[in-house]
Amino acid sequence: MQATSRMPTLLFMAALVLGSVGPVGAQEGQAMPGVINTKCRRSTDLRGSLAKMTVGLGFKNKGKEPVSDYYFALPKALADNLVSMNITGAGKKPMEFVPAPGVDGGGGAVHYKVLLGAPVPPKSDAVDLQVYMMFTNVMTPKPPAVAQGERQLVVFRESHYWLTPYPTTVMYSEVLVAGDVEEYSKQDPTEKKGKTIIYGPYNDVPAYAYSPSMVHFAHDRAFVTATSSSRQITVSPWWSEVRVREDVFVRHSGAALKGAFNRAEYQTKPKTSARSAAASLTALLPREAKGFYYRDDLGNVSTSFVTKNAAHSVMTLRPRYPLFGGWTASFTVGYTLPLSAAASFSEGRFRLSLPLGVSLEDVAADLHSVSVTLPEGAHDIKVEALPKGYEEARSASRAFLDLAPRTTLTLSARGVPPG
What pTM was estimated for this model as a whole? Predict the structure, then answer.
């Protein structure tokens, strides 16, 4: 975001740079005939509270015409809970992609189109792609409620095959889980090695092949989601600082607590009486941050502390009570930054660089917004490097003793990953 001031000696420019990209914009099209996947290797990591999937693909153009796009699909249950997606090509070069609503493979699958840039000629060497995805709310508690001292079990449902509109020569999948496996689906060849389940290799898999898979396992992580996260940033050149306030509403979407909460048991046996409860949350804040505070509806919460590493100020937030499945909490975190740590001056303009994503570690947000209030008189405002999926709105306001309105930019998005 860039802004220049009407005062010749006070110029502002702000660039909010961050975030994983979620696909936006739609282009219709059909998968090119003649394309085949030479290989597909998929890894699904279920060891955290968010599911992370990496798919390594290789494809060839065996048709008669050059191919400019590559298509793939996600089952609707995954696509509805997608919070980030990144695609790279050879040399880890980032690849552009857009939804492809005009492609219909049946079954309600959601299609995406990768823009290859240079067309792939017929009978050329295989082209490699890597797809990185993150999902929230795709591990379901089973049973849906547990007693305070019981372990949490979850189930993950997907397919033994990667959903693709192209035939695949060789396909292989692995699922990494957090704890002991209760049961899992089998489609030969299937192998279990400790906490890893390996499916395949499957040879000559047809396009849109689908075979329901299931893994039921123990998972003691807290499934915390920010139902709403709002960050308000105020730039104050007169005090040479940037003030930041974050209002967060969180919910534990794991197995609900069966019966009443026993605090005495929790205090004497915290590791076994609240296995999947969230006793604390971690906020990764700018390293230069200072003047921290942590509050809830009752006032200041003193059970928090801050450490610093090479990249962040790490703020550990301990709520007044552990967060069990089905429970919610709301709180506010605030801090200040020296203006010199967030702003730079170049070519008659100021550039403001601030984090944009969700600050809570391993927590995605259903709805996330960032509001930036610029100094009085700032104008010619430009937003740079805004991730896809964000909407921008502008408003004007006045503070005490202001002679001119202040511009506030509000950037909002749904399904935002941590970081």
Answer: 0.83
